Amino acid sequence: MKNGYNRATMRQIAEAADVSLGLATYHFNSKRHIALRIMDTYLRFLKTKLSSAVSQKNEPLLHSASMVRLCIKFFMTPPRRNFYLECLELDIYIESIQNLGNEAIPNIVRHQGIDESPDMMLLFDNYIPPSVEKIIILEKEKGNFKGI
Question: What is the Cα–Cα distance from 114 to 109, expressed in whole angstroms?
Answer without folding.
Answer: 5
